[in-house]
């Protein structure tokens, strides 16, 4: 007779939670079909190797599992990084992170200091229909994307942002990356999302913003060159037609959480 206790229930709950996080991240990155494929393969492997105990087929699948895990780590390193960030950045663990910080910051004041120049620049570019793509780093490093553009390493300044995205500027077509309250680089190349749910009216900037939000936990702002509308992408979700107040509120939350 099979005995089922609290320990078994706890074990199942942990596995279910891990699968849920993986499912959400794979869904946001547009690789949900691969998730279900890998899950189906694991189920077949468990049935043949552990339950039915087919020795020949089980040994073959065991070899595939050993190699397959290495291949999955290589192919989905961005998703794995996001998965680890999700676990470490959860609200219930945030108080532990604060215990190891030696300095305390006035998050709201610091956030407003850097948020307002970005908001002013976006509103001015929205009025003139100047296309722009600004990426704000959070937990996952963006060095590989920074190196694809020109390193700037300057203070956040609204005039500098507008000059970089001016139509005749050589850097206006790429993305600007902001990291730790500094403009690190501009003219950067980002991954493009191939999500079929993105409206066709949205261009390459919106797909790039969505792509970087799927590959990392970064926060991306887009100013449309055609309509002047402001959109943001975060954690695989794209929100369009933001007002200045809405943009300021979203940015304040992002910048304050980075302190």
Q: How would you describe what is shown here?
A:
Helix content is 54%, strand content 14%. The protein contains 10 helices and 7 strands. It has helices at 6-28, 32-51, 55-75, 77-88, 94-99, 107-127, 143-146, 158-164, 204-215, 244-257, and strands spanning 132-136, 150-155, 175-179, 182-188, 219-223, 230-234, 237-239. The radius of gyration is 22 Å and the shape is elongated. The termini are far apart. The model has no long low-confidence stretch (mean pLDDT 81).
Order of helices and strands: HHHHHHEHEHEEHEEEH
Beginning-to-end CA distance, first to last residue: 54 Å
Q: Tell me which oligomeric state these chains represent.
A: single chain
Computed over alpha carbons, the radius of gyration is 22 Å
Inertia-based shape? elongated
Beta-strand percent range:
5-15%
Q: Could you provide a short overview of the structure?
A:
The protein contains 10 helices and 7 strands.
Topology:
Elements: H1 6-28, H2 32-51, H3 55-75, H4 77-88, H5 94-99, H6 107-127, E1 132-136, H7 143-146, E2 150-155, H8 158-164, E3 175-179, E4 182-188, H9 204-215, E5 219-223, E6 230-234, E7 237-239, H10 244-257
Parallel strand pairs: 1-3
Antiparallel strand pairs: 1-5, 2-4, 3-4, 5-6, 6-7
Helix pairs in contact: 1-4, 2-3, 6-8, 6-10
Which descriptors apply to this entry?
259 residues; seven-stranded mixed β-sheet; 7 strands; alpha+beta
């Amino acid at each position: 007779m099979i005995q089922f206790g609290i320990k078994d229930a706890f074990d199942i709950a942990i596995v279910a939670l891990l699968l849920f996080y993986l499912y959400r991240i794979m869904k946001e990155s547009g690789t949900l079909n691969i998730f279900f494929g890998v899950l189906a393969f694991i189920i077949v492997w468990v049935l043949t190797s552990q339950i039915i105990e087919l020795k020949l087929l089980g040994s073959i699948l065991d070899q595939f599992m050993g190699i397959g895990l290495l291949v999955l780590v290589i192919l989905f390193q961005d998703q794995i990084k996001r998965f680890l960030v999700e676990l470490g950045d959860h609200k219930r663990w945030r108080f532990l992170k604060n215990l190891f910080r030696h300095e305390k910051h006035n998050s709201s004041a610091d956030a407003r200091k850097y948020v307002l120049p970005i908001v002013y620049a976006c509103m001015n570019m929205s009025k003139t229909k100047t296309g722009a793509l600004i990426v704000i780093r959070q937990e996952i490093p963006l060095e590989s994307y920074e190196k694809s553009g020109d390193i700037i390493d300057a203070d956040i300044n609204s005039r500098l942002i507008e000059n970089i995205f001016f139509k005749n500027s050589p850097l206006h077509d790429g993305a600007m990356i902001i990291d730790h309250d500094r403009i690190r680089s501009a003219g950067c190349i980002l991954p493009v999302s191939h999500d079929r749910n993105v409206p066709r009216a949205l261009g390459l900037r919106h797909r790039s913003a969505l792509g970087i939000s799927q590959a990392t936990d970064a926060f991306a702002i887009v100013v449309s060159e055609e309509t002047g509308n402001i959109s943001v992408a975060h954690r695989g979700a794209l929100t369009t037609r933001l007002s200045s107040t809405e943009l300021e509120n979203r940015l304040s939350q992002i910048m304050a959480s980075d302190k």
